[in-house]
Amino acid sequence: MKNIFLVGMPSSGKSTLGKRLARHLAYRFVDTDKLIIREEGGRSINAIFKTDGEPYFREVESRVLHTIQPNSQLVIATGGGMPCFHDNMAYIKTAGLSIFLDVSPEQLLERMLRHNQNDRPLFNRQDPTLLENLRQKYNDRRFFYTQADLIIPGETAVEELSKQLEAYL
Ligand SMILES: Nc1ncnc2c1ncn2[C@@H]1O[C@H](COP(=O)(O)OP(=O)(O)OP(=O)(O)O)[C@@H](O)[C@H]1O
Ligand SMILES: O=C(O)C1=C[C@@H](O)[C@@H](O)[C@H](O)C1
Ligand SMILES: [Mg+2]
């Protein structure tokens, strides 16, 4: 019944592992960025940032998070920055079990360059200082991410994670 929140940097594998975990536990999977896009009438994350700015995005993001009720049997892939704004991490901790997918900036860079994904207002694949940016954000955000109940390496297999979760669910 308890929700499971996956937190971590963009490209850390929240969607990939989250979908697998949801299937494994027979939970529903939701992605908060998708909930935001729906809340905003289908506008992309890039469009929201461009037109209304990051503070507006963070307001909507927090509002959307607070609509998630505890014990909804959901696996939730959170936005990369979500835990680091407003009271979001505190809310996440009251609304379910939280898991930080810890992936190094170097690995994140490799994944970002390997895979096509252009809807990232804060991380531009063409930016020559992308690695620096990833290191900076990773270091700034660890304070919030590490408040999660569990910290696991990004490569953790779903079977291994499920075993660890037995103690919590
Ligand atoms: N364990 C893994 N090992 C190697 N590559 C992975 C792993 N998990 C995910 N990936 C790859 O990394 C990329 C990012 O993964 P994914 O989309 O799941 O991350 P995310 O945290 O949901 O990112 P975003 O913040 O963009 O939603 C994908 O192309 C995926 O195939
Ligand atoms: O890392 C971030 O701050 C973000 C990550 C994405 O999931 C989106 O929520 C948005 O692009 C911001
Ligand atoms: Mg994702």
UniProtKB/TrEMBL annotation:
Gene3D superfamilies named in the record:
P-loop containing nucleotide triphosphate hydrolases
- Quote the Pfam families the UniProt record gives: SKI (PF01202)
Please report the name of this protein according to its UniProt entry: Shikimate kinase
Record has RNA-binding as a keyword? no
Q: What does this protein do?
A: Catalyzes the specific phosphorylation of the 3-hydroxyl group of shikimic acid using ATP as a cosubstrate.
State the pathway, as annotated in the record: Metabolic intermediate biosynthesis; chorismate biosynthesis; chorismate from D-erythrose 4-phosphate and phosphoenolpyruvate: step 5/7
Q: Which GO terms describe its biological process?
A: amino acid biosynthetic process; aromatic amino acid family biosynthetic process; chorismate biosynthetic process
Give the source species: Larkinella knui
Cellular location(s): Cytoplasm
Q: Which cofactor does it need?
A: Mg(2+)
Record's subunit section: Monomer.
Q: Which InterPro entries has this protein been placed in? A: P-loop_NTPase, Shikimate/glucono_kinase, Shikimate_kinase/TSH1
List GO molecular-function terms, semicolon-separated: ATP binding; magnesium ion binding; shikimate kinase activity
Concerning its family, UniProt says: Belongs to the shikimate kinase family.
- In the Enzyme Commission scheme, what number(s) does this protein have? 2.7.1.71
Q: Which reaction(s) does the protein catalyse, per the Swiss-Prot or TrEMBL entry?
A: shikimate + ATP = 3-phosphoshikimate + ADP + H(+)
Q: Which GO terms describe its cellular component?
A: cytosol
